[in-house]
Amino acid sequence: MSNTLFSQRDNQLEKQVPTFANLSYGTHEQQAFDIWLPSNTDEPAPLVIHIHGGGFRNGDKKNIRQSSIKQFLEAGFAVAAINYRLSDNGTYPIMMEDAARCLQTIRSRAKEWNLNPDKVACYGGSAGGGISLWLGFHEDLADPGSDDPISRQSTRITAVATAIAQSTYDLHTFREWFGIPDLKAHESLYPFYGVKEDSEWNSKRVRRLMKEASPITHLTKDDVPVYMAYSKGDFPVDKDTPGIQWVHHVKLGLKLQEAMRNLGLECEVKSADHPETKYGSIEAFIITKLENNRTTLIKTK
User: Fold this and answer.
1) Domains of the chain
2) Which tens digit of pLDDT belongs to each residue from 255-272?
3) Which of 32, 45, 173, 208 fits 168 for a cystine, CB–CB 3.0-4.6 Å?
């Protein structure tokens, strides 16, 4: 992920030690999170959740940028970085469901940690951005009648920010958007859907999963504002373009922006060809969306 997608570099920054590390939200070792709680406010803190990328195949919560943690803590926000089960442990939807469960787990401890459960933003790069979008658009997964108090927690959030992320995970949509009928699936999509043969991309099972996994499928007019940053401009794509390039193409943000604007929703896209001046960075966007006349509540040193 390019450093230019975030407002600061991490060079020589002091490591921010989590208030609580490797807390579990499930029985699998990858179902864990770290959380940093602010020390500069007595008011319930908004929460920012970082979801790592890695093609649903790798990555780790430790990849959160120190500069981002620093900015959010200074704004009086709590920060969480989460892990989730990867595709070697199962196919979609375990990754999205894990992120939702972790969100619910943290929300269930809002009183204990002095968090504002009504102000939560999710962000991440690539697959982590896609999971963030999925959470931002998906209907609430809360089960009000559950005997499990965590399952009763809402999964709705306030804002989403992404870096080089995907708004769809449907191969047929990728082909349509790029105008390439024989575009080959990115290698990460095979284990994500449990596909062994290319003929399966046309199967009823995989078509259903691709539709359900795609954030843009769940977009409705009551959804949250989005900020999407990309490291490259609108470069040409053909059937020989490496998957690692087209899967991070700004077109995936522009298509979502078009759909959101048609619904009257805010979606800012930043790339080499698309300058964005309203916010300037992922962190600034999130801070703006989660702040609510909180400037007088922040303690200064």
Assistant:
1) 3-297 (3.40.50.1820)
2) 999 999 999 999 999 999
3) 173
